[in-house]
Amino acid sequence: MAKLGSYFWSRRGGGGDARPEVSATIREGGVVYTNVTVHSKGSAGSFRSIDDKPALTLNFSKNASGQRFHGFSKVSLNNSVQDPTYVCEALCREIFGAAGVPAPQADHATVLLNGRDLGLYVVVEGWGKPFLGKHFKDVDGNLYDGGFVRDIDSGLEINSGDDGEGREDLKRLLATASDPDVEKRWTRLNAILDVNRFASLLALEVMLCHWDGYALNRNNYRVFHDRATGRLVFMPHGLDQMFGTDGRMSPNSSIEPLMRGQIASAFVSVPEGRRLYFDRIAQLQANVFLEDRMTNRVHELARKIHSTIAAYGTELGVEHDALIADLCERITARVASVSEQLKAPREPAEFGADGTFATTGWKMRVNPQGGGAVPHFERSEVDGITLLRIQLTKGRGSGSWRNRVRLGAGQYRFEGRAKTSGVGGKGAFCLRISGDRRGYVKGTDGEWTPLNYSFGIGGGVGEIELVCEFESEVGEIAFDEGSLRLVKE
């Protein structure tokens, strides 16, 4: 316990320090497993110390050859601190499996650690050759761990495999993705990447609002070299914050976001890849991403664990029912949003001869991280100027006006002006795009402050969300709607 307690995940280290392993005895029902290796797991959001509710990985066969737990050589005990419903992992892994993308299974258990009752956990099948053997004929290719917010050019750790330490397959894929000749790039991608599974992975990560996956955050993924086909296969991981639950995505999020993963960006920047991506979304929407099927499965999983949760407190059972209802509402909203977006045109914004694009259609949003005060929004006209106003009167809060726009590759500048009143230096504001928190400034009450924010889009066409944001303890801000525009640099 002291050895496990000595490890703490740190953002600065990215979890790079070796996690200490210890030996444990596991009892489940009337069965006893000995010489089981245990180490802490989790990163930025899910890591908890050993004296809290730790997430753990159990390896039953590492020091006891042939030992299996219900047929598995390795399992993870996920504390589900980022998914209080406890059902997203199981649901979404099944959805990926139905789409032909391999993903480890998930189930549930209660956990006692040295007699201390830690409550309900999500049990997830471990990565490795036993898992690979269920999905691939040849399991001896390298299986790479994506680590914490790292792309495939970051020297990924090898979980298993006999391909050696050179990572030549990943290097070839990177070189292919960088080919400036898009026709040649697509031909080369087909030779080294399982493009059909990759299209399904990208489509489902976006449809499921998996903001913390490979496509959108270069996180929570594995890559396997399938030597039987000679192609690399990407597989999902960490499926707990789904269907727009944490503020980074919502059930109405774009189905054409900017792809941060290098291979994802290269894939959709090729016309054939972009077309395959949208075709796959439509196919999955018709055959897999079905509202009734998903919500029914949510209720089925919830019924299985409800009595266990309620046993820890009647109020916990009531709270869980509300969480399940909210998840089903988000699923319903996401299915409707994807359907509506599939009908919309997907051409990028057209800039004028002067290289500018005037933005219209701004919508208000209370920011989840803004604090307790709820801002008041108003669009008004003063002296011929249309103002987008945000007012705070009851303590610190945050709000923003937002607008989506579809852009092609290039460098852009988002510019405009804003004026505060009654803030007195206790607030800040900015223009930015969603996902970036830089550029906040302080202004002088009653004076217009010019604002600009520069950004680039690496490849293909993607939809971004422009943000006019205000954070303060008191006062209000007015953004001049007519001044808000994009400039192509």
Q: Based on DSSP secondary structure assignment, what is the total number of beta strands? A: 21
- Average pLDDT: 92
Q: Regarding quaternary structure, how should these chains be classified?
A: single chain
Task: Report helical residue fraction.
Answer: 25-40%
| Helical segment count | 11
Per DSSP, what share of the residues sits in E-state strands of 2 or more residues? Answer: 25-35%
Through-space gap between termini: 57 Å
Largest sheet: 7 strands, antiparallel
How many separate domains make up the residues?
3
Global shape: globular
Query: What ranges have pLDDT less than 50 throughout 5 or more consecutive residues?
Result: 12-16
**Rg, Cα atoms, Å:** 24 Å
Output the structural class.
alpha+beta
Protein model, in words:
- The chain has 489 residues and is α+β, with helices and mostly antiparallel strands.
- Helix 4 runs antiparallel to helix 5, helix 6 packs across helix 9 (271-287) and helix 9 packs across helix 11.
- The chain has three domains: 2-125, no CATH class; 138-291; 356-488, Sandwich (Jelly Rolls), CATH 2.60.120.
- The strands form four sheets. Strands 11, 13, 14, 16, 18, 20 and 21 form a seven-stranded antiparallel sheet that branches.
- The protein has helices spanning 2-5, 88-98, 129-132, 168-177, 182-192, 195-207, 214-217, 262-268, 271-287, 291-311, 314-343; strands at residues 22-28, 31-41, 55-59, 74-78, 106-113, 116-125, 143-145, 157-160, 221-226, 231-236, 356-358, 363-366, 376-382, 385-392, 397-407, 410-421, 427-433, 449-457, 462-472, 475-480, 485-488.
